[in-house]
Structures are given as structure tokens and as C-alpha cells.
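Progress report, Aim 2. The chain analyzed during this reporting quarter is listed below.
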Amino acid sequence: MHSDFNYKFLPPEPSVGHFVESIGMFHNPSDHPKEVAIIPDGRIDLFFYQSPDTVFQVWLMGLETAPKQRSILPHTITFSISFRPLAVEYLLKSSIAGFLNSAKEMPADFWGFHADDLNDFDAFYKKASLKIASLLPPEVDNRKLKLFDLVYATKGEMSVKELSETACWNSRQINRYFSNQFGLSLKTFCKILRFRASLEHLAQGRLAPELNFTDQTHFIKEIKKFSGVVPKELSKNKNDRFVLLSVLKDQ
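Predicted C-alpha cells for the chain:
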């Protein structure tokens, strides 16, 4: 939390951990816009948003593969549910491939949420948790469960071939699934997760590559590709512009 820009993220109930990564909020209580950098993190975000000049809105964000600059307007509040990829098929039940690096506006009453739900984050968390629990499928394709468990456990460092063999799922079928559901390849998704894992090190001021980058040059290139800046500048996180990095630093 920061006096001019507030944020809070809580882990989900354990029973929905395969589908949800966190439930959170952003609030800009100041009279000035807050400039932030949105960077790829492998999450699919559902935003419930309101500002003094807009009506209540719900937006579903596709996966990001490149950094973007955004301005959070004064006196706006946003609550969010950050999903893992399995949620796309099993909870949202609709492909997000068509809005890679963009967003789709959802019905204003999506999942039964309304403007009043933005008044109390704890109540929102409980309502979101109950709604998600009610949507849990009776069963999930075991290959998909195994694949995503491996991808997250290895921080995106396992090759597509190894993932395919271990999950007992044909690599061509995997890439067709990723393309149809998310609009990118498994290899690209793994690179994003490796980048995100590197953010945890950069948040602590550790600037050398600690994952399977070829060398320092490769590391710098990948960090810049996904964040727009070199590791040293990213680590400094001037004005808390990279909110994800600020969150990791506070953990």
C-alpha cells in the first residue's frame, strides 16, 4: 500500500487454486492520474471498475505479451479476479484468443456483481469466492491439470517437448489448445512465466539471471522485451510504476 495509490491482493480459497491466482483491488484516491506499466504475467484479469466520470464496468483482459502504459484516473477503484489459464475453459467457458493484448467489455451485471460491491473489498472477496466455487466443474481433463501444474512448478523452464511427454499430451494438440483458447503458444506462455519468476528476483535487487537464460545478454533482452526496460531500471521501479513489482517487493 502507498498513500497515493492503494492496492491489495489476497490468495484465493485453496479449493479454487487451479483456476484463480488472486483476488485484489486498486484504488487511486488522489486528485492526479497514476501512471502505471502493465507487463505480461500469465494471468487473465477480470476487472470491476468505477470512476466518478463512468458507470460501473466489467472488463475481461486477454493475456499480455508486451508492456503497455496505462493511466489510472483520479478517484477510481477497481476490484479484480486474476485467473489462471484453466479458468478460461472451465469457469469463463469462452475463448480469450480474440483479444490477446486487449480486453473485452462484459455485461455490467456479469456474475451478479454491481457497483455497490465496490464499497467493501472483504465482502467482494467472499462473494467472488462463493461464485467461483459454484462454477467449479465436476472434473477437469487430467492432462491439462498436469500440464499447468508442471508449467507453474518449473517457472516456465521446462521445454514443450518435456511438458508434452510428462503430461502425456501430444505437443501439436497442446499448441492447438493454446492457440484456440489463449491466442498464443505454450512456448510463449512459458517465457512469460519465466519472466514473471525473474521479477521476484529483481524485486529484491538481484540483477543477475537465476533461471535458464542463455547468458546475461539473453536475460537483458528478454526482460526488456516484456517490461520495456532493462533489468536495472525495472528493479528501481521509479514511482512504483510497475505495480506487479511493487506487490512482489511487499511480499
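Residues 6-135 form a domain with the Immunoglobulin-like fold (CATH 2.60.40). The mean pLDDT is 92. These observations will guide the mutagenesis work planned for the next reporting period.
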